[in-house]
Here is the input.
Amino acid sequence: MYVSDQWNEYEVLDTGDGAKLERWGRVILDRPDPQVIWPKADPALWEKADGRYIRSSGGGGQWSFGTKLPERWVLHYRDLKFYVHPTGFKHTGIFPEQAANWDAMRGMIGHAHREVRVLNLFAYTGCASIACAAAGAHVTHVDAARGMIAWAKDNRALNALPEDRFRFIAEDALSFVRREKRRGSLYQGLVMDPPSYGRGPGGEVWKLENELYGLISECASLMAPDALFFFVNSYTTGLQPAVLRNLLEKTVGRTPGAQIDAQETVLPVSTGGLLPCGACGRCVFPAGRERDREK
Here is the structure.
């Protein structure tokens, strides 16, 4: 398992009955989680929630706040800073379980001692982009939602990282990848967080099971000869880590010496146990493995 257990300001306080109770700095939020099918360990703890996301019978939902919260606030992870804002889709702008991946990518970038270009697809609010840029990489950040691009730019400014270390692109991921392929663009690192389901700007239907192999195959041609890593995250329930392993082995993993691993991504729960948060497949190329050994 990839366990993100180095947080100080974020904590999963308890889980149970289809929900998770999380501390985001000083703010405690109660959010649904369909994989939590066990009872709460400490029911009284949930009374401390400042906000609860309540699902509606027709899908979607809304927040109910018992405490007046700021529109957004700052959460720290190591030397990084990110804005937190509860959205209408129950998200907050940060996937804390990804911290283990941020650390792994930063380690390889920091020990490369050369220019590293990273492509972040479905890049959301840019936490992975910020982590890679803070380690010295130039990051191309791609997301189809302009609101997420604006949020990512705010996170860049919050961390006082140079503007010329970023390229923000509001575009469909596959369209951008194909355009980069025609241009002959190459990257030393690639990370993607594709959604389980969605629609493209032209109304095209995206379903992860149908599209992921093709996307990874297209991305394989963007990896430079001195590539460090290729990370794929999945939040689709039922998509096992072995699926991601197989996809990587049949695409980017054909590079001699490439090392592939795929695990569940989890968060520790303070009342005990681990919270499942999806899966991640990692392909570390020989150049990345050399840097790991140097550490």
Notes: The two ends are 21 Å apart (CA to CA). Residues 291-295 have pLDDT under 50 and may be disordered.
